Amino acid sequence: MSDSKVIAVTGASRGIGAAIVEELARRGHTVGCLSRKGTGPEDREVSPAIAERFINIACDITDEDGIKTALKALSERAGRIDALVNNAGIYFEKKVVDITTAEFEEMVATNLTAVFVMCREVHPYLVEAGGGVIVNIGSYYEQLGVRYSAPYNAAKAGVGALTRCLAVEWAREGIRVLDVAPGIIITDINREYLGSEGFRNLIRTRVPVGEPGTPEQVGKLVAALLGEDLPFFTGETIHIDGGQSVSV
Fold this sequence. Notes:
Blueprint: E1 6-10, H1 15-26, E2 30-35, H2 48-51, E3 54-58, H3 64-78, E4 83-86, H4 101-128, E5 132-137, H5 150-170, E6 175-182, H6 191-194, H7 197-206, H8 215-227, E7 237-240
Helix pairs in contact: 1-8, 3-4, 4-5
């Protein structure tokens, strides 16, 4: 692959996804911004030079036919697809005894099944490109027991397992698959919590660096993983959590 790649990113409209696509475009890549609205980043202003590297495509990741259509559209407009970032996801907190089967299945469908479908459907494009990279956005929650988060944790643990399996299965085709697992990152989802003294105290006591991360830091890590030629580096889960997952 050339230094400048064509990269599809799901959940590109806000938060970590928006930071990822901005960083990738800043580094000279062409970025397929896949989101429900298909309008690109919504929570930040980007310069015209950055925006011109976006190919904005509407895509509901829970719609299998929609995924196929979106990837085909990106390939036709950009000429190829070199990499994929599976970032889109949902989160809610609820006691297990109050979670309906439909709610559990929605979490798994969005946070795990859609990742599987995206990987499967992008596979032929990466093979045609001579190899490629898939970065799945997991969570440090995947290895923890967290109250009120059972469906989310289960789905994200599945993302880690899926990453390892695909990395092994597709290694000889030149396709690397990695799992980036963020810790506490400042996004719209947790901004209200960050305003509470209890949450700030949790960060001070549980996160060794003493503060939450930012979407921009995750974006830089993902861009670095996609930008470097590291054929021997695949199947790993990389935590970006301020040391929380290794702290006692």
